[in-house]
Design brief:
The chain has helices spanning 42-46, 76-89, 101-113, 141-144, 148-152, 156-177, 185-192, 200-210, 222-228, 277-280, 282-296, and strands at 2-6, 10-17, 23-28, 50-55, 64-65, 95-99, 118-124, 238-243, 265-270. By secondary structure, the chain is α/β, with parallel strands linked by helices. The protein has one domain (2-296): 3-Layer(aba) Sandwich (Rossmann fold), CATH 3.40.50.1820. Strands 1, 2, 3, 4, 5, 6, 7, 8 and 9 form a 9-stranded mixed β-sheet that branches. Helix 3 links the parallel strand 6 (95-99) and strand 7 (118-124).
Length: 297
């Protein structure tokens, strides 16, 4: 059931399933996706006693900024602050946090900086906190070509292209990033409606410029960004997932980042799954959340 709640900056729309007194789980989508990524996962978790919260991130779907004066920031600290504000608004002291892409980044940040709010973590592609200080160091050509869309959005031609062709652009990314997933027109259309949010383009462009140090962030998040620059460890129980057909981050692409998980941690390779792993392999993602719940007891 879709619900809405106000935080200091946003009117957040979220899906809630399960008993209101169940163990809380917050599941966060990535770019360019939406809450439908978890449509086969939330009922599985709810049937096992969970209270499942799946919000539309800032700039997606019916979630809206409360003030026109608020910067349309897509920086990593903004996403994490939104997650904390949502937990506070819902009066959830601690939750299992799960996500991928942008949502996985928000979940990792909260787990790292505010471990008292996270019973555990499920993160696709591992440790998703951005090391902005080193972002301008070139990677291997094989890795660089996968980030073409980020470089495209660094210029105003890219902003115009996303504005004019957002559905075609994002569908191309779906296809490139999940080459083994045969999604249909209806599946894509349900999620693509979320990209019609009036702030979508601004939030997305800011995200891909800020992570390379090309634009300033929202000053209200300066302290959190400073703390993130230390690449803090994640001490809570964590399961990381990798799809073996991920077109953005191939398996093992972030193996060096595993040192940041200093609590109980397990990495799992999921066959025939691409970047949108929760929607492509819901059984594997749900199993990881249930295992984290068991570990945290």
């Amino acid at each position: 059931m879709l619900k809405r709640i106000a935080t200091d900056l946003l009117d957040i729309v979220y899906d809630e399933q399960g008993d209101a007194d169940g163990w809380p789980v917050v599941l966060l989508h990535g770019f360019p996706y939406d809450i439908h990524a978890y449509e086969d996962i939330a009922p599985r978790l709810a049937s096992r006693g969970a209270r499942v919260i799946t919000p539309f991130l800032r700039g997606y779907g019916p979630t809206r900024f409360l003030s026109a004066a608020t910067p349309r920031s897509g920086q990593q600290a903004a996403l994490a602050a939104d997650l904390l504000a949502l937990l506070d608004a819902l009066r959830i002291e601690r939750a299992v946090l799960g996500g991928y892409d942008w949502g996985g980044r928000a979940a990792c940040i909260v787990a790292a900086l505010y471990p008292s709010r996270a019973r555990g973590l499920v993160s696709v592609n591992g440790y998703n906190i951005q090391d902005i200080a080193t972002a301008m160091r070139p990677a291997s050509p094989e890795k660089e070509h996968r980030m073409w869309y980020q470089y495209y959005l660094h210029g105003e031609r890219g902003r115009a292209g996303l504005t004019e062709n957002r559905r075609a652009f994002c569908r191309l990314l779906w296809s490139l990033w999940s080459p083994s997933w045969r999604f249909g027109d209806d599946t894509y259309a349900r999620s693509a409606a979320a990209f019609d949010n009036p702030d979508f383009v601004d939030v997305v462009v800011h995200s891909y410029r800020h992570r390379f140090g090309l634009v300033d962030g929202d000053p209200r998040f300066d302290d959190m960004e400073r703390r993130l620059s230390a690449m803090p460890p994640i001490t809570v129980p964590a399961i990381t997932l990798e799809g073996d057909a991920d077109g953005v981050t191939p398996p093992g692409g972030r193996q060096a980042d595993r040192k940041h998980f200093t609590g109980r941690h397990e990495n799992r390779l999921v066959p025939n799954a691409g970047h949108n792993l929760p929607q492509e392999a819901p059984e594997a993602f749900a199993a990881a959340v249930l295992d984290i719940d068991a570990w945290a007891d």
